[in-house]
């Protein structure tokens, strides 16, 4: 390991600005400066924090969400663009690694994206949540295996997953197999109720144990006024409370500092990177404790695309017999000629 013995990290639990993207970005930049001022070398924000998580889609039926959905499109983040430029500059200026959740707009689609900026300001990773959950499927498209990647940063090897992706053991294993040292988890927060916070805690502590890495998790927060703005119905407002578990967990599955479950704040913790080896000495899930001859993972990490350019299936025959003779020595062309000959001889 080339990392320093101790790394200071920060996990942010604050409310977005539900009115403007600019307001939320301003809060992000202020939190980056505050975390850096406290000596943090890594700062993590909640799931799709910019411009805001689509809480409206959880408490309203699709037929009533059109206006808010369009507004989310209008304020979503284009990568690269002005928002990523501002965050990259802040990361570079403060010399801090930043992990930010955004609603990414790619032409006519939105995606739940996680962005990892190195301390130099370089965007090291843009990944998209591979399977949006329940109500989220009306909002976001699906990501692909290209984002299941661990990247080297100034604080070590970072992997990231969003929310219920942590319930996909193969997605987690893909990052474990790439030897992540710090796993970044992001959840929306202020959702479902206290049971969600309990589930988050179990999930991130288990991953820390199984992966033998640190987990830095950030969840969002909504004020009472914001909850009332999202839904005027009291019964529905109850679904927009609880679910906050901003936490930092060691490879031994322990909280490094007490978690933040209420209100706004920034957790700061010092990570003893030597604990990774101490844990993996006992149990390395992708090393001496693995049985790859019995169980292994196949990951298709190719980016998906709606269109692929391909060469014609058959050659266009033109030119003189001399041209054909000159082409006879080309292996690819000989293979094509053989296929054409087989098709010509096929029964009709």
TrEMBL record:
MF GO annotations: aliphatic nitrilase activity
Domain annotation CN hydrolase: ranges: 7-273
Matches recorded under InterPro entries: C-N_Hydrolase, C-N_Hydrolase_sf, Nitrilase, Nitrilase/CN_hydratase_CS, Nitrilases_CHs
Keyword Membrane: no
UniProtKB keywords: Hydrolase
Broad class of enzyme this protein falls into: hydrolase
Signal peptide stretch: none
Coiled coil: none
PANTHER family tied to this protein: CN HYDROLASE DOMAIN-CONTAINING PROTEIN (PTHR46044:SF1), NITRILASE (PTHR46044)
Name assigned to this protein: Aliphatic nitrilase
Protein's organism: Labrys wisconsinensis
